[in-house]
Amino acid sequence: ARESQRFPDHAGDVMGVSIRPDNPSQFVSGSTDTTAILWDVRAGRSVASFVGHEGDINAVDFMRNGMAFATASDDSTVRIFDIRAMACVSIFNGGAPATSVACSKSSKLVVAGFEDATARGWQTLSTKSEPTIELHHELPVGTKHRDDSLRISCVGFNR
């Protein structure tokens, strides 16, 4: 029987993980403790912690080169963390709690789903705070407010 490994450094529930594309023995996790942690399976421990969010991290996604990753948080921000700099290098405010995140294959675009039934995307190298892409889910006729059934829970790229 194969032994399983435990990675206990988070102080809250883990909401998302992403495997590092350039080094599959490493992965990043995002947690309700507001931190993202980079782990190394071979070493059996965490190798770096990334802080800055003020709410649960609901999703994480590595950029294709493996040098950076994006996070989506209840604090309404999408953040880009650079592993080499060991720091947050970009913050995008979506105006509502972020539930999901995906980085494009070129790493030039990050898209997130939000609890206000909107998907928003930003150019990762831009200093503009306004999203480049914004897609709204229309409310059904007669509905006066949004509810959890309309949140965008998953985003992704197919190419």
Please tell me about this protein's structure:
Helix content is 0%, strand content 44%. The protein has no helices and twelve strands.
Features of the shown structure:
159 residues; mainly beta; four-stranded antiparallel beta sheet; 0% helix
Q: Estimate what percentage of residues fall within beta strands.
A: 35-45%
The amount of helix comes to: under 10%
Order of helices and strands: EEEEEEEEEEEE
Low-confidence stretches: none
What global shape is seen?
globular
The separation of the N and C termini measures: 37 Å
- Cross-sheet strand order for the largest sheet: 1-2-3-4
Number of strands: 12
Number of continuous helical runs: 0
Structural class: mainly beta
What does the average pLDDT come to? 88
Radius of gyration (CA) equals 16 Å
What is the makeup of the main sheet?
Answer: 4 strands, antiparallel
In short:
The protein is mainly β and 159 residues long.
How is the secondary structure organized here?
Layout: E1 14-19, E2 26-31, E3 36-40, E4 45-50, E5 57-62, E6 68-73, E7 77-82, E8 87-93, E9 98-103, E10 109-114, E11 118-123, E12 133-136
Antiparallel strand pairs: 1-2, 2-3, 3-4, 5-6, 6-7, 7-8, 9-10, 10-11, 11-12
